[in-house]
Amino acid sequence: MGRPCARLFFMRLLLVEDDVLVASGIKLGLGNAGYAVDWVGSAERALEVTQSETFDIAVIDIGLPAMDGLTLTQTLRDRGLTMPVIILTARDALQDRVQGLDKGADDYMVKPYELPELLARLRALLRRSQAATSAVLRFGGLEMDTGLRQASVPAPLPADGANPAGRQPLELGPREWTVMEYLMLQAPKPANKDKLLQALTGWDKEITPNAVEVYISRLRAKLEPHGIALRSIRGFGYRLERLGAD
C-alpha cells in the first residue's frame, strides 16, 4: 500500500455534518489518510469559520438543520470561495444530483458509500484544483512548485569550473513542506505561529511548541547552506531572511 500522508501534504478539510456518529467515522477515516479535518455541525457555523479560515476542500452533508447543504454550497460560491466541495446525501434521484452540481458542488456521493471511494474522489478533486492554481513560490534561491509539490535550490558549481549544474531537489517531509509553504507565502513578512499550528493540525488536535521547533530546526539546517535564514520573532512567529542581507 502507498503512504497517503506523504502525498497529501496535510491538506486541510472542512467537514460539515450534523450527525455526530457519522462525523466521527468520517473524521477518523480521513484523519488516518493524512487530512487535517475540522468538523462543524451546521451550515451557519461553516459560514462563520470560512470567513476567517482557509480550507483546501470541503465535504458537506446535504441534510443539515436549518440551512441545508445545497444552500450552504451556493452561499460559499456566492462569497467567492473556490475550494472543491463534495456533497454527501441519501438522495439518489437524478434531479437531486443535478441540483447539487448546479449549486456549485464539484462532486456528489450517495450514501451509503465506501471510504476508499470518498478518498479517491477527494484526491481527484485536489489534483484538479492544484493544477488550476499551480504556482511557483520563490525566496532567494529556493523555489517551491505548489502544483508538483517539488522544492529545489541551485546546484553547486562543478569543481572543475564547468557550466553550472542547474538546480537540485530540496527534500522536505510532509509537515516541513506545510511549514515552508506557509513561510514562503508570508515572506518577507513574518509568519504567525498560531496560524501555522492550525495549518498543521486543524482545531482539535494539539501539537506542542517544542514539536513545531523541531520542524523549524530541520528547515534551518536545510536552508542555511543555500543562503536562507529562518528567524524566530519573539512572541509572534518566524520569518525568512537572506543570509548576509542588510
Overview of this structure, please?
The chain is an alpha/beta fold. The protein folds into 2 domains: 129 residues, Response regulator (Rossmann fold, 3-Layer(aba) Sandwich); 107 residues, Arc Repressor Mutant, subunit A (Orthogonal Bundle), CATH 1.10.10.10. 41% of the residues lie in helices and 22% in strands. It is built from 9 helices and 12 strands. The strands form 3 sheets. The protein has a 5-stranded parallel β-sheet with strand order 2-1-3-4-5, with helices on both faces. Strands 6-7-8-9 form a 4-stranded antiparallel β-sheet, with helices on one face. Strand 11 and strand 12 form a beta hairpin. The radius of gyration is 20 Å and the shape is elongated. The termini are far apart.
Which SSEs are present, and which pair or pack?
Elements: H1 4-8, E1 12-16, H2 20-32, E2 36-40, H3 43-52, E3 57-61, H4 69-78, E4 85-89, H5 94-102, E5 107-110, H6 115-132, E6 136-139, E7 142-145, E8 150-154, E9 167-169, H7 174-186, E10 191-192, H8 193-201, H9 209-223, E11 228-233, E12 237-242
Helix pairs in contact: 3-4, 7-9
